[in-house]
Amino acid sequence: MSQLVFADWLQIVSFAGIVVALVANIAALLRRREEREKADEGKNIEMMAAARQTVTQLQSIERKLDGVASRLDSIAERLVAAEESAKSAHRRIDEIRKVG
User: Fold this and answer.
1) Would you say the pTM of this structure is higher than 0.85?
2) What is the block-wise mean pLDDT of the chain (100 residues), using blocks of 10 residues?
3) How many angstroms separate the first and last alpha carbons of the chain?
4) How many CB atoms are located within 10 Å of the residue 38 CB?
5) CA distance 78 to 54
6) Residue 3 carries which DSSP code?
7) Cβ neighbours for 4, distance < 8 A, ≥ 6 positions apart
8) Which residues have C-beta within 8 Å of that of residue 12, sequence separation ≥ 6?
9) Taken in order 15, 19, 25, 28, is the CA torsion positive or negative?
10) Residue 53: which of 42, 45, 64, 41 has the closest Cα?
11) Rounded to whole angstroms, how far apart are CA atoms 61 and 59?
């Protein structure tokens, strides 16, 4: 037992090689996992920035639409006044035609 034969050394070296390969594979898997997590984190940051930019743009559009809505209300009021004025003018013209 004090002397190991070549076959014993070969088994020991093979087993050690298998252990080293397993450790190396586990380390590589862990590194890839960390890299994926970092990439996902970067993507999340980019998505949050894009979402903030989208919200800002939507708020800008909303303000512009509010301005357009108020202008449309103003135009609608003037249109009603113009229609009433035209109606009144037609009545006066009709009265002048009846008299004349």
Assistant:
1) no
2) 73 91 93 90 88 93 91 91 93 86
3) 141
4) 10
5) 36
6) S
7) 12
8) 4
9) negative
10) 45
11) 5
